[in-house]
Amino acid sequence: MSLNSLGAKTTLRVGETTYDMYALSAVDGLEKLPYALKVLAENLLRNEDGANITADQIRSLANWDPDAEPSDEIQFTPARVVMQDFTGVPCVVDLATMREAVTEQGGDPTSINPQVPAEMVIDHSVQIDVFGEPTALERNMDIEYERNRERYQFLRWGQGAFDNFRVVPPGTGIVHQVNLEYLARTVFVNTDGDVPVAYPDTCVGTDSHTTMVNGLGVLGWGVGGIEAEAAMLGQPVSMLIPRVVGFKLTGEIPAGATATDVVLTITQMLREHGVVGKFVEFYGEGVAAVPLANRATIGNMSPEFGSTAAIFPIDAETISYLRLTGRSDEQLALIEAYAKAQGLWHDPAREARYSEYLELDLSTVVPSIAGPKRPQDRIELSAAKTAWREALPSYLSGDAGVDPQLGRPSREVEVTIDGEATTIDHGIVAIASITSCTNTSNPSVMLAAGLLAKNAVERGLRSKPWVKTSMAPGSQVVTDYYRSAGLWDALNTLGFNLVGYGCTTCIGNSGPIIPEVHDGVVDNDLTVVSVLSGNRNFEGRINPDVKMNYLASPPLVIAYALAGTMDHDFATQPLGTDAEGNDVYLADIWPSNEDVQAVVDSSITREMYLEDYADVFAGDERWRSLDAPTGDTFAWNEDSTYVRKAPFFDDMTPEPEPVSDIQGARVLLKLGDSVTTDHISPAGAFAQATPAGRYLSEHGVERRDFNSYGSRRGNHEVMMRGTFANIRIKNQLLDGVEGGFTRDFTREGGPQAYVYDAAQNYQAQGVPLVVLGGKEYGSGSSRDWAAKGTLLLGVKAVIAESFERIHRSNLIGMGVLPLQFPAGESADSLGLDGTEVFSLTGIEALNDGVTPRTVHVQATRADGRDIEFDAVVRIDTPGEADYYRNGGILSYVLRQLAHRD
């Protein structure tokens, strides 16, 4: 119940229904805010309680200074939480463990329930084991259930045990597309009271690409599973009122360019501008001309350019999309009436004040790709061959001499595939995958890919035999409109058969490359590439055999499958010849914008969405026939290698122990710039010799059944062994070594060891650990295990030049202290090589309710010389200080619940 001290509560009549609402017009200044801040303002008005959320917070938002640096803290209460299964399973494990902890303290286990709607879409577990054939979907799903039965049984238990928790079963689609097409309300209605309350739909999600729903005017962003659990349990998200970047769009996308090219251009622009921790809001006359699918594509990439959210306002295009995707007439009427009443309806003539301004004329966008290892590294397609050749030498080992005929390094290897001899070399496209939430939600690029495939087949072109091709749509609706447009046959002819509905290659579930290609690559140390229509191409993410990864639009994925190599210039080199022997170039088969739009208009209907989402939570026979346990608490199986009781509440005391300074710490890893959460906690496959592989082997799991790190996130034993285990991570404590290794200073001379093994030795001797990092530490996915694993390895603090937003928050959420080097300084500039012994003092001030601005760091070298500096404490809000004092957000919430009872 809101205090309503500012008199904002009023009513809204829509048709025959009257709703309560909290009017922004009640407080002077709120009407001038950018759209996203208006949504936050309503959130504060409605949830004002005089304690966590006060009238002063509302006034500080009304008086927002767009030019000031963020300093005012507010508490944001999302309407709902959305999860995918990789990050969602650990959330449910933690909730199940919390129920046990409450029971052990004499409480009621059913007091642990999501307090807001929590919805999980199982989309991250399907792997492309079978491809290029009509039965690929069914066979991959059979394998998926076989691998993940324990996890799915656990989720079926959670579906029945927890109130306010719903699960969309496997084989439905990608979480963000399901969110966009079905789960999102745009305007939420709470019917708990006598009169329904209408308010903006807002959400946080356990996947960083939750921002995709920003395209619908829904304010939401990715948080770690740690923050998501707290939000589910009724805890507001503590945040500073952010700076808002106004991004003006003008013009129209030219012929030959796609929405993917637009988003890669925007990603590059915003990365270069610097938007970490900021909101990006699109405005201007050009907004109305941007289709909703393109808005969602742009919103989806928000984590890639670093912003918290990238939002479009509500307008007529929003309503048209919601109508197409099956929302009711009553809901559409409410959304339009509410948005207009609150000043949330887009008025291109009204320009809000923004903190910073950018502009893009869409007519200047050109076809592009991004790579070979970061989404912001955009390359114009016309320069792609040259850029690949320039990047290649840094990926080669040994003699990288230039072949005089080719003008580049070459190592040709003959392989036999399906009885035919062929030659592979550096730069071959080993994987071409149409996958991921970013693009498979967008009919224009998906149908462009289908039309290009049709044109290619008609001209006699085929994918090269060494390319593993795949199609993993974001929802079943894509399949419907491909059938309606008559494009499936051509896609299948080129090997782009349906392999699953889920986040496959983009999350590292690409499956093995063609066996003969694998042997040729591994035996001859070839540097080969993947091309995918995804949003992430970080090192080691896509496939362990593939060193270079490029993001591209769906039609360009097909084009590269036809070319078969990155060493190809589409403008000057043909893709092949037709039946008459004429050269066929990409321009000859590329569909026009008019052709694509005509197929979009004729192939997609509202009925497709209504039918596909009619019974979305029921699942297929595989899901319904799972033998799921029942009961208020989960019966843990001690033999399970998938789901184990989380250790985070072991020995938890009723009151938090005082925090202490860190003495005698060693450096576990010294890392460079742009270390991602993929580097810290990889999601893909792992080898038998790794600590995680050894653990599973010791527990009787065959190598073929290892599955992936992502699928085993419900087992802390696997995940802590996989922390800092990415095959491409470079620990600067070691020279020229890649992978999850470090130096173990508990042994004489500090020999090389696996990170996990060294951490165990340090813990046995009571030695605390620190990690040294560079710029943008923890960028990438909102991966809670990157923080959980760091904690379980015994790391007490991470000292970096800068942090990405979510990972910094997650570290605090697990009781790990994030610290930054003094401005302009780094580990290298200070002379730190990672062999020092560290002492950090000043942390204990937190026990007195004071968050110190800095802590003093003293690093003592082996020769006795000290290096001293003051590190900036990145605990940014009082709420975060409470979490840190409690040893993390989950312990804080559990203690709050215990005190409440």
From TrEMBL:
**Keyword 4Fe-4S recorded:** yes
Which top-rank group of organisms is this from?
Bacteria
Residues annotated as domain Aconitase A/isopropylmalate dehydratase small subunit swivel: 694-823
A Gene Ontology biological process term: tricarboxylic acid cycle
| Keyword Lipoprotein included in the entry's annotation | no
Kindly list the cofactors needed.
[4Fe-4S] cluster
User: Which Pfam families does the record associate with it?
Assistant: Aconitase, Aconitase_C
Signal peptide range in chain numbering: none
Reactions performed catalytically? (2S,3R)-3-hydroxybutane-1,2,3-tricarboxylate = 2-methyl-cis-aconitate + H2O; citrate = D-threo-isocitrate
Which InterPro entries does the UniProt entry name for this protein? AcnA_IRP_Swivel, Acnase/IPM_dHydase_lsu_aba_1/3, Acoase/IPM_deHydtase_lsu_aba, Aconitase/3IPM_dehydase_swvl, Aconitase/IRP2, Aconitase_4Fe-4S_BS, Aconitase_4Fe-4S_dom, AconitaseA/IPMdHydase_ssu_swvl
Q: What class of enzyme is it?
A: lyase
Q: Which GO terms describe its molecular function?
A: 2-methylisocitrate dehydratase activity; 4 iron, 4 sulfur cluster binding; aconitate hydratase activity; metal ion binding; RNA binding
**Keyword vocabulary terms for this entry:** 4Fe-4S, Iron, Iron-sulfur, Lyase, Metal-binding, RNA-binding, Tricarboxylic acid cycle
- Which pathway does the record list? Organic acid metabolism; propanoate degradation; Carbohydrate metabolism; tricarboxylic acid cycle; isocitrate from oxaloacetate: step 2/2
Q: What is its EC number?
A: 4.2.1.3
Q: Which residues form the Aconitase/3-isopropylmalate dehydratase large subunit alpha/beta/alpha domain?
A: 70-564
PROSITE patterns per the UniProt record, alphabetical:
ACONITASE_1, ACONITASE_2
Q: How does it assemble?
A: Monomer.
Provide the function of this protein: Catalyzes the isomerization of citrate to isocitrate via cis-aconitate.
Which family is this protein grouped under?
Answer: Belongs to the aconitase/IPM isomerase family.
Name of the protein: Aconitate hydratase
**Source organism:** Nanchangia anserum
